[in-house]
Amino acid sequence: MKKLLLLWLGFLFLLPVWCYGFEVAGINYSFTGSNTVEVTKKTPLYIGNIVIPETIIYSGRTYFVRSISDSTFYNCTNLTAVNIPNNITYIGRCAFYGCTSITSITIPNGVSNIRDELFRNCYNLINVVLPSTVLAIERSAFAGCSKLASITVNNSMPPFCSVSDPFLNVDKTTCTLNVPFGCDSIYRQADVWKDFLNIKETGYLISVSAEPIAGGIVLGEKMYEKDDWATIEAIANTGYSFKYWKEDGKNVSQNSSYSFTVIKNRILTAIFLKQITITTTIKSPDITICSVSGSGIHDSNSIVTLQAIVNHPDYEFKHWEENGLFVSNQTNYSFHAKINRNLVAVFEKKKIYINTSVSPSSGGIIQGSDEYDIGSIVQLEAIPQTNYIFKGWQEAGAIVSTNSIYSFTATNNRTLVAIFSKLITISVTTELTNAGTLSGSGVFEEGSTVHLNATTNMGYKFLHWTDGVNIVSNQADYAFTANTDQTFTAVFMIHCIIQVNPSILDLRIGDTVYLEGNAFPKDIEFSLNWESMNSNIATVDNSGKIIALKEGNTNITATSQDGSCKGICNLTVIVPKNLMIYPNPFTNGEFTIELGQWLKELKETEDISVLLYNISGRLILDFPIGSDKTEIDISHLPNGTYIVRIGEFVRKITKQ
């Protein structure tokens, strides 16, 4: 019973190491061995161009990426490309099922099986390259890859194909099957492969592999034309060294980069040998006062002795550590070289303490340890919680720094308080969205003054601000202290205005003009009552038609039926003497000039012209007067104020 309990506890201890997943640089992994991992699926799904690395660093340790698990990229429809390194030796079932954006894939050396439904329904897949290591293609591996146009098989022997056609729905009449020289007849007799009508011998196959597989990666496997210059390369993984290239059991080259002329198919193996590397690092406030010896490359299982040496009386050796764990407190540490190791010799000075706290307690957190070596750099970081900001570091009631990251030299014990301030969110709204413009909302420090403003649009009237329940101010400009998140509502009422166009009008006796009344806001509809304040000078009917009767000034009013809205036009009726220009202002681009008696007599003896200037004094029109009443069209000119001059008479007109 005791043995069973120990076994069960051991299994529980191993679970965190071997079972849980983690993410590095956007790719999910899970452990498969003490120094190996596999790529796994994740949520959200993978997108874009994924580059799988040969190795990753996680929690300070290096792991080799050896495999891709089942369904890793399943239905990743926005995955456009995957770069698979040569040290991947296994790709699981359905790993790329439904990756509809992938167009090309190269399977790396070392993969021996193309598993069930691996690329099923990758209907935009066009090119596939299979290495010489692939020995079998399983059920429906490429089923549904209807656009597959080229398959290159770098193997002189056709890989075994499942009875259930791995290339279901692939057009074998148009898809090109590229095989090594001398292999055409073999593929034409092999099950499934013989169904491809377009089989081409595209070159001599130079096949490369690594021994052991973990020793390194090999590059250069492909098909070459006869007499091509081929270069293959062996790259040792960490902990291995390249020794030689082997062919038919013989050493053919000791150069990791081996070049030769291609005259036949060749199968070459890169031989790697494992080495044990012992590295050491010094962890000390001052690395010049200490040293270590004994590190380097060692034969497997040989005895390594590391020595920690202190060269300063104020320092002492504390211990050896590895991956952050204590190993030995002996200055001379001996062990057998079995695996690569990186050991840290820890040296220390006298310790001092930095005590920290947060105010208010809910305002944030502090990063930075409380124990430091004398003379070392202390770095504290204040990190505010949501809806707080950092204000400063306080010591003995005084602010000593306003930087959230506070660095200083550890010379004495200190007590520091990180001061935070709460952030208050103030929002504004109104039910009448067209009634005006609201400003002043935002995020404020607790206790600061907030100024809200409501600017009213034409046709509306501001009433008051409310906090959703109570009226808080009748002033459009409302100031208060921010102490809690709040939403304030600006309450407006419709306050209609009638704009009479034109609002100022000069007429001569007998003239007739129609006025126009526009209501604001524009979505209000009602009829108008027109009235002349002096019907002896001018009359107006319910259509807004004015008849000028007598010289003088009066107001023409437009009033809503209920009397709540009113607009006014200031009317001047004049008797023409020497010059009359009307209407003024005018909106249709035309105005009339009528000469008085004196100008009429002058016109009989000499030519008279209308000179029109812009407001800057530039002459823009010279128009001869041919009759006592002349209509002038300036609709082609922009709206604005112009100066009319006829002889000595000058008038200002406005085009609207």
Walkthrough of the structure:
The protein has 656 residues and is mainly beta. The strands form 15 sheets. Strands 9, 11, 13, 15, 16, 18, 20, 21 and 23 form a nine-stranded mixed beta sheet that branches.
* Biggest sheet character: 9 strands, mixed
- Rg, alpha carbons: 46 Å
The number of distinct helices, counting runs of at least 4 residues, comes to 3
Query: Low-confidence stretches at least 5 residues in length (pLDDT < 50)?
Result: 1-19
Question: In which range does the helix fraction lie?
Answer: under 10%
List the helices and strands and how they pair.
Blueprint: H1 2-19, E1 21-24, E2 27-31, E3 36-40, E4 48-51, E5 55-58, E6 61-68, E7 79-83, E8 90-91, E9 104-106, E10 113-114, E11 127-130, E12 136-137, E13 150-153, E14 160-161, E15 176-180, H2 184-189, E16 198-211, E17 216-219, E18 222-224, E19 229-236, E20 240-247, E21 250-253, E22 257-261, E23 266-274, E24 276-283, E25 290-293, E26 296-298, E27 303-310, E28 316-322, E29 325-328, E30 332-336, E31 341-348, E32 351-359, E33 364-367, E34 371-373, E35 377-384, E36 388-395, E37 398-401, E38 405-409, E39 414-429, E40 436-439, E41 442-445, E42 449-456, E43 460-466, E44 471-473, E45 477-481, E46 486-494, E47 497-501, E48 504-508, E49 512-514, E50 516-520, E51 528-532, E52 538-540, E53 545-548, E54 552-560, E55 566-574, E56 579-582, E57 590-595, H3 597-603, E58 609-614, E59 619-624, E60 629-633, E61 640-646, E62 649-655
Parallel strand pairs: 3-6, 4-7, 6-8, 9-11, 10-12, 11-13, 12-14, 13-15, 15-16, 16-23, 24-31, 32-39, 39-46, 48-55
Antiparallel strand pairs: 1-2, 2-3, 5-6, 16-18, 17-19, 19-22, 20-21, 20-23, 24-26, 25-27, 27-30, 28-29, 28-31, 32-34, 33-35, 35-38, 36-37, 36-39, 39-41, 40-42, 42-45, 43-44, 43-46, 47-50, 49-53, 51-54, 52-53, 54-55, 56-57, 57-60, 58-59, 58-61, 61-62
